[in-house]
């Protein structure tokens, strides 16, 4: 029974992901970007930048094959209210946990599944963690981020 529930959840997530990718109302990249602006450097560079700017850090731990990770990236992280808050208070960095850098980060910050979001201070101390796609979507991530001090 537990296996069938797990299968149903996974199937639902993949269905949502497939619909989201094929949805013709999705914004194209040429229409501009809103939402969370991710730092393009390494995890260590993100910590240094956060310390310099006196900000917190959001780490998006993902893999390239993870459907829910892709859903977060295309449908949740693009939320304007979430982006406005996160961009003003956090340095956000996405780390592919199957890359060379990601494997090193995973040694310090192991995860139970993907996606995992770590909310941490600029010293790398984890303050809050979210595993999977939050049921409340962008609103739940925003509420969690607002509680991080």
What does this structure look like?
- The protein has 149 residues and is α+β, with helices and mostly antiparallel strands.
- It has one domain (35-147): Glutaredoxin (3-Layer(aba) Sandwich), CATH 3.40.30.
- It is 48% helix and 17% strand.
- It contains 6 helices and 4 strands, in the order H-H-E-H-H-E-H-E-E-H.
- A 4-stranded mixed sheet has the order 2-1-3-4, with helices on both faces.
- Helix 1 (2-22) packs across helix 3 (67-76) and helix 4 (80-89) runs parallel beside helix 6 (137-147).
- The longest helix is centred in the N-terminal third of the chain and has 21 residues, at 2-22.
- It is globular, with a radius of gyration of 15 Å.
- The protein starts with a helix and ends with a helix.
- Residues 10-149 form the Thioredoxin domain.
- This is Thioredoxin family protein.
- Keywords: Redox-active center, Signal.
- It holds the Pfam family Thioredoxin_7.
- It comes from Flectobacillus roseus.
Mean pLDDT: 85
Strand ordering within the main sheet: 2-1-3-4
**How many individual β-strands?**
4
**Helix share, percent:** 40-55%
Total DSSP helices: 6
Low-confidence stretches: 6-31
Q: So, the CATH homologous superfamily?
A: Glutaredoxin
* Structure classification: alpha+beta
Which architecture name does CATH use? 3-Layer(aba) Sandwich
Helix and strand run? HHEHHEHEEH
CATH class: Alpha Beta
**What is the CATH topology classification name?**
Glutaredoxin
Shape: globular
Main sheet record = 4 strands, mixed
Cα distance, first to last residue?
41 Å
Domain count, please report it.
1
Strand % is 15-25%
What is the C-alpha radius of gyration, as a whole number of Å?
A: 15 Å
Domain Thioredoxin: 10-149
Keywords: Redox-active center, Signal
Protein name: Thioredoxin family protein
InterPro entries: AGR/TXD (IPR051099), Thioredoxin-like_sf (IPR036249), Thioredoxin_CS (IPR017937), Thioredoxin_domain (IPR013766)
